[in-house]
Amino acid sequence: MPENFDTNTIRMLCFAGIFFAMALLEIALPKRDLSIERRGRWPTNWAFVILDSILVRLVFPIGGVGLAYLAAREGWGLFNLVEVPVWIAGIVAFLVLDFIVWLQHWAAHKVPVLWRIHRVHHADGDMDVTTALRFHPVEILLSFVWKGLFIVALGAPVEAVLVFEIVLNGAAMFNHANVALPRWLDAALRLIVVTPDMHRVHHSARMIETDSNYGFNLSIWDRVFATYTDQPEGGHDGMQIGLSEETSKQARRFSWSLLFPLKNDPARR
């Protein structure tokens, strides 16, 4: 891939295309009636996107693809030291990066200090495509450092990192979308990838369900590590999403959500 290739433009076009496609599908094929109107949630969720994007640009202007370029130029990482066909290196890098994102998500629920930050994502009182974008900036920065370490350690091919970032972003918007897939299609897809119905279970207010289905892209990790839950106990229409009704009301405010990690953890459901 040439160094002057505009990866940011490619990523932004993919992001916009997938977002609008999911937003339109939510209108055409909604899974649930939203308990909170979009105007009550979208401004805060988008405020997080804007703030996160600005901070990442300021703190890590090189980005994941830039790190891969740097590692290749300097000869850092496994695949820059050992000769392996680029397609094999790409597949291995993609799988490893997908797994470490699963592992990070698992840790965000198990490590108290990380949960304090991650619960901002779960405080959303309903779930749609914008929930995929609602992350505290501290979590976004930590995530970049975590993925960056593996990009460099692997010497991940630039193309693999670009594809991974596009797929991860798109998969998150897909599986957070309030979209009703036919049951046969959902069943077939979730053998490989995380579907909206599968990930919605993870946003349940019931702790036993929240602590499952950690995947964002490939569904295999939850099956391998026995953290897979097929369906919510109360059904998708009856399940409560979020942390609690009171938290969900306050989480509509951006300032409250931004300071939420500093507040005492409400006994985890």
Automatic annotation (TrEMBL):
It is a multi-pass membrane protein. The keyword Protein biosynthesis does not apply. Residues 91-227 form the Fatty acid hydroxylase domain. Coiled coil: none annotated. GO terms for molecular function: glyceryl-ether monooxygenase activity; iron ion binding. The keyword Lipid metabolism applies. It comes from the Bacteria. It is found in: Endomembrane system. GO terms for cellular component: endomembrane system; membrane. GO terms for biological process: lipid biosynthetic process; membrane lipid metabolic process. Keywords: Lipid metabolism, Membrane, Oxidoreductase, Transmembrane, Transmembrane helix. The chain crosses the membrane at residues 12-29, 49-72, 84-103, 144-168. Pfam families: FA_hydroxylase (PF04116). This is Sterol desaturase/sphingolipid hydroxylase (Fatty acid hydroxylase superfamily). It comes from Roseibium hamelinense. The lineage of its organism: Bacteria, Pseudomonadati, Pseudomonadota, Alphaproteobacteria, Hyphomicrobiales.
